[in-house]
Design a protein that fits this description.
The chain is α/β, with parallel strands linked by helices. It has two domains: 128 residues, Aspartate Aminotransferase, domain 1, CATH 3.90.1150; 208 residues, Type I PLP-dependent aspartate aminotransferase-like (Major domain) (Aspartate Aminotransferase, domain 2, 3-Layer(aba) Sandwich). The chain has 14 helices and 13 strands. The strands form three sheets. It has a seven-stranded mixed β-sheet with strand order 2-8-7-6-5-3-4, sandwiched between helices. A four-stranded antiparallel β-sheet has the order 9-10-13-12, covered by helices on one side. The chain has a two-stranded parallel ribbon with strand order 1-11. Strand 6, helix 9 and strand 7 form a beta-alpha-beta unit. Helix 3 runs antiparallel to helix 11 and helix 4 runs parallel beside helix 11. The structure holds pyridoxal-5'-phosphate. Pyridoxal-5'-phosphate binds next to helix 5.
């Protein structure tokens, strides 16, 4: 840690990362880990202190949070107001264990088996699996809103599963796109499930706009799901949150016994509160490194892997790279694996994934360079 790097984000080495216990570095111990969407950065000190203080107190019994949302649910309401001027009622906020739980609850409870669900592709692969597992039909949603309307008019899906910002492309839907999507949702009576888990990871001058904040009409047909797990690297703590704009879904959820959905883990809740109320300095430092890395990656690819096509993402720490110069399908992924780097294979993300890989650049600049040099079979230690 130095004055320029107070959180130790720039000094990470492969040797140290290999000693970390998570799935990212342990799953493929013989390869550099640039796959699953966990960052290599240690958690924010404010979060660590908060968790430590709970352990020091020594009491982790049932919490007196009262009915309704946990303290993290309240922190969510405050953050949406402060960051986006999106004013929401805490009575419509539900705690979850993870974001996919909310996505699946909404699909399962609001649409019927066999129903069509629109999704921008390439898509975060657990969305694709969710549709298959739940016997819903995938409708490929084009990113262009004019084309999207045409597809929706023909396919008549029950819902649009919006990934905003989008994984794996890093696309941020801007206000005019969101307004057009809201109009389409209104015209064709779509439910919108908006996964905004990457919303704290948007690079300036782009800004995040919660889909449901676009209009009262949009909000009344939208379920928004998010968490601190991506931007603050807390996925193992199992907490997420859902805002339910659809009144009948809120009524349905509240009509079930609370135990059916479980209740949140206090460490996840406390970590989320610390993240959203005391973690913004750390997040700004992380965004500084990520911003540098997303730009540097362009230069590294030009130097080591000319022919790879990479559009610098507007959000997320995920780079969606067209390596079809090395072959179709997952041939590039396999080549990089054989050279010692574990990426996410493009076909995992469905349509548009052939010849692509997804690279997670949430690491130190030195490790990023080692990754790209190793992908090129060119790393000299
Ligand atoms: C778009 C998106 N949604 C959901 C998740 C998973 O979140 P959770 O573990 O809270 O279900 C991820 C993880 O990478 C993601 O990228």
């Amino acid at each position: 840690m130095t004055a320029n790097d107070p959180f130790g984000l720039r000094s990470l080495t492969v040797e140290h990362l290999r000693s970390t216990p998570g799935v990212k570095w342990q799953q493929h111990p013989d390869r550099l880990a640039s796959w699953v969407a966990d960052m290599d950065f240690p958690m924010a000190p404010a979060i660590a202190e908060r968790l430590r203080s709970i352990v020091d107190r020594g009491m982790v019994g049932y919490q007196k949070w009262g009915a309704g949302a946990s303290p993290a649910g309240h922190a969510f309401v405050n953050r949406m107001s402060a960051k986006y001027n999106w004013e929401i009622d805490v009575a419509r906020v539900h705690d979850l264990a993870d974001v996919l739980q909310g996505v699946r609850l909404a699909i399962g409870m609001l649409t019927e088996p066999g129903a069509a669900i629109a999704l921008h592709t390439p898509a975060y692969h657990p969305f694709l699996h969710s549709l298959t597992d739940m016997d819903r039909r995938l409708v490929h949603a084009p990113f262009d809103v004019g084309e999207l309307r045409d597809v929706i008019a023909v396919e008549r899906p029950a819902a649009l599963l919006l990934c905003h910002p989008q994984n794996p492309t890093g696309h941020v839907f801007d206000r005019s796109q969101l307004a057009a999507i809201a109009d389409i949702a209104e015209e064709f009576d779509l439910i919108v499930i908006s996964d905004e888990i990457h919303s704290d990871l948007v690079y300036a001058p782009n800004t995040h706009i919660p889909f449901a904040s676009v209009s009262a009409a949009a909000q009344s047909r939208t379920i928004t799901v998010t968490s601190t797990s991506k931007a603050f690297n807390l996925a193992g703590l199992r907490w997420a949150v859902m805002h339910v704009g659809i009144e009948r879904f809120d009524t349905m959820l509240k009509s079930y016994p609370k135990h059916w959905f479980g209740s949140p883990n206090m460490f996840g809740v406390e970590a989320a509160v610390a993240a959203w109320t005391e973690g913004d300095d750390w997040l700004a430092a992380v965004m500084g490194v990520l911003d540098e890395n997303r730009l540097r990656l362009s230069e590294l690819l030009a130097e080591y892997l000319p022919g790879a096509v990479y559009r610098i993402p507007d959000a997320t720490y995920l780079a969606w790279i067209d390596c079809s110069i090395l072959g179709d399908g997952d041939a590039p992924f396999e080549i990089f694996q054989s050279r010692g780097v574990e990426l996410s294979p493009g076909t995992q993300f469905g349509a548009g994934g052939s010849g692509h890989v997804r690279l997670n650049f949430a690491t130190s600049p030195a490790v990023l360079e080692q990754v790209v040099a190793t992908m090129a079979g060119n790393y000299v230690s």
